[in-house]
Structure formats: structure tokens, C-alpha cells
Design the sequence.
């Protein structure tokens, strides 16, 4: 079966979200009451989840449907982040740096930020 580029993007994002949440395909299948093969087909880009399932994924993973579809690579609303950042930093600059990294470096950066956040929470 021919894979669609959009399906590949959506599948890759669903896979990344699932892994970032520490779930197996089987666990996600159980959570959504679908077969493990269905999850595998989504992640491999063989098929795209229907609209109602996309909405459920978005709610489950706390992201937008546009993020899951690859239309918006920011999974949160960052419109006012420039005001929250250090005065000499701009969110656009940060995004450009991150997007220039390889997928492995982006994953490392993400995991580092998560670790720093957990450390900060423990110190509170």
C-alpha cells in the first residue's frame, strides 16, 4: 500500500507522542479501544486516524489536532512567550535553533528540559 506524506508525518508525530508518554503501542491501543495493528498502521503512515480519533489523541496528549497533523510544529500556544522569556531572547530565535538540530538532538534537548523541569519541581 502506498504511503501518503501527510500520513507519514501524522504517524511519526503520534509515535513520538506515544513514546514521550512512555506508552507501548499495545497500551495506547487499549486506551483508545482499537487494535494494536491500528496503532501500528497510524504510526507507519499506512493510514491516518479519522477526525474523531485525531481529536481524542489531541485531548489525550494535550496537543492540538494541527500539531498531530504536522500543520503546527509547536504543540502549545506560544503567542505570548516573548514577554515571558529573558529580555534578550526571542522565541523565534529559539525555534530556529531547535529546528536546525537533527531529530536526535531535538529529542535530547527535549529530554534535558523535562529533566530540568522535574528537578525544579523537586526543589519547590
Sequence:
Amino acid at each position: 500500500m502506498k504511503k501518503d506524506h501527510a500520513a507519514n508525518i501524522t504517524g511519526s508525530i503520534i509515535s513520538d507522542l506515544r513514546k514521550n508518554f512512555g506508552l507501548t503501542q499495545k497500551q495506547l491501543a487499549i486506551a483508545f479501544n482499537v487494535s494494536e495493528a491500528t496503532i501500528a498502521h497510524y504510526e507507519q503512515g499506512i493510514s491516518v486516524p479519522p477526525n474523531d480519533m485525531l481529536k481524542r489523541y489531541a485531548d489525550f496528549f494535550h496537543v492540538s489536532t494541527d500539531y498531530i497533523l504536522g500543520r503546527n510544529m509547536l504543540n502549545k500556544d506560544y503567542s505570548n512567550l516573548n514577554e515571558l522569556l529573558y529580555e534578550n531572547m526571542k522565541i523565534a530565535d529559539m525555534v530556529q535553533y531547535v529546528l536546525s538540530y537533527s531529530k536526535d538532538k531535538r529529542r535530547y534537548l527535549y529530554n534535558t528540559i523535562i529533566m530540568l523541569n522535574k528537578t525544579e519541581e523537586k526543589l519547590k
Notes: The chain has two domains: 5-68, 81-123. The chain has eight helices and no strands. The mean pLDDT is 81. Residues 103-123 form the longest helix (21 residues).
